[in-house]
Amino acid sequence: MDLDVFVAAHQAEWARLEQLLGRGRRLTGAEADELVALYQRTSTHLSLIQSSTPDPMLTGRLTQLVARARATVTGARRSGWRDAARFFTAGFPAAVYLSRRWWIPTTLISIAVGVIIGWWTATHPEIQGAIGAPDELKAMTKPGGEYETYYSSHPAASFAAQVWTNNAQAAAMCLVLGAFLGLPVLYILWLNMLNLGVAIGLMSSADRLDVFLGLILPHGLLELTAVFVAAGTGLRLGWTVIDPGHRTRRVALAEQGRAALGMALGLALVLFVSGLIEGFVTPSGLPTWARIGIGVAAEAAFLVYVYVLGGRAARAGEVGDVEAADQTATLPTAA
Fold first, then answer.
1. For residue 47, what are the CA distances in angstroms to 54, 60, 240?
2. Residue 182 region, left (φ>0) first, then alpha (ψ -120 to 50), else beta?
3. Which helix (H) or strand (E) element contains residue 6?
4. Nearest Cα to 260, choosing from 232, 241, 223, 225?
5. CA–CA dist 300, 294 (Å, integer)
6. What is the pLDDT of residue 328?
7. In Å, what is the CA distance from 206 to each residue of 108, 143, 239, 261?
8. Under a CB-based contact definition with an 8 Å cutoff, are residues 272 and 212 in contact?
9. Considering the entire predicted model, what is its pTM?
10. DSSP annotation string for 255-284
């Protein structure tokens, strides 16, 4: 497409649209109809330029013009409690549900890797020697050692906030960096499973694995599930770069990327709950069975939330993306 010829052919229409927009609500019925028609044509022009001859200055001008026209035609849309309720009752659980074919295998493989690392560490003294000196390992694993006092080393509120911040950052990194073919996500998963596996192995070699599991399971079930969901979604985003399916790569990435960013918000709330459990329940004086029971209940509630609310919303057509009215208009593409 010759861009100069295209601009010359449609410049008058864009100028007329801008003129009508400048008049605000002082439009006659005929002028309002004209504005709608010009808005539709300009949206098509923008899509054509973006797909064939992207020009930053012209694209920016038309994008702004189309956005102003959309706000005038449809009315400015205000996000509020209704949008938040829709997100948490439909959008977020549906996005998690639809990503289950990615995060469930991610969960199973990651746990298997962690168990193998734990077994290898527990049964190979030379590995333990490479991790630290005997006195250092004893200080970590003994009763009242670092693994136990870690959860009560700070006031519960500040510890919960710190844990939530760290885990939310890890989940966000998995979601955002997934676009790089998923490779950073695999690295983040490896570091998490390596640290967990080493801890399991060291505590097992000290015959204190039951104590460690009693400390990690109350919050770890929900926390690790959130991380695995983020990782699986990040890997799905990376695969979209490789195989966008029937959509163009740009459209596919935009759709998956918006869902991933929305999921980051939802997972931040899930990790906030696990942070509260880690800060207030894990180091508490409750019996081990009670602490683990709270963790199991939180995990079960999340899974019911995903599979009941999310499954119902997904079957109704919800995909976790923004509403159609808020999406950029795209042209149909040939198969």
1. 10, 12, 22
2. left
3. helix 3-22
4. 232
5. 10
6. 47
7. 26, 10, 42, 42
8. no
9. 0.70
10. HHHHHHHHHHHHHHHHHHHHHHIIIIITTS
149 burial via Cβ count (<10 Å: 0-12, 13-18, 19+): exposed
Q: How is residue 206 written in tokens?
A: 């000290």
Rounded to an integer, what distance in angstroms lies between the CA atom of residue 50 and that of residue 330? 10
Between 182 and 186, where is the model more confident?
186
Residue 234 has a CB neighbour count (10 Å cut-off) of 32
Structure tokens at 183: 């490779």
> CB–CB of 86/318 below 8 Å?
no
**Other residues' Cβ atoms within 10 Å of the Cβ of residue 16:** 14
What 3-state class would DSSP assign to 99? coil
Question: Rounded to whole angstroms, how far apart are CA atoms 78 and 22?
Answer: 22
CA 287-289-294 angle, 5° bins: 100
| Cα separations in angstroms, 135 against 129, 226, 256 | 11, 35, 49
Element (H, E) at 306: none
Q: What is the pLDDT of residues 107-159, one digit of tens each?
A: 999 999 999 999 999 999 999 989 988 898 988 888 888 887 777 766 666 66
91 Cβ partners below 8 Å, 6+ apart?
262, 313, 318, 320, 321
Q: Which two tokens stand for residue 193?
A: 């499973």
Residue of 179 and 109 predicted with greater confidence? 109
| CA gyration radius, the chain | 26
Note whether 61 and 13 are within 8 A (CB): no
94 neighbors 319 (Cβ within 8 angstroms): yes
Higher pLDDT, 31 or 13: 13
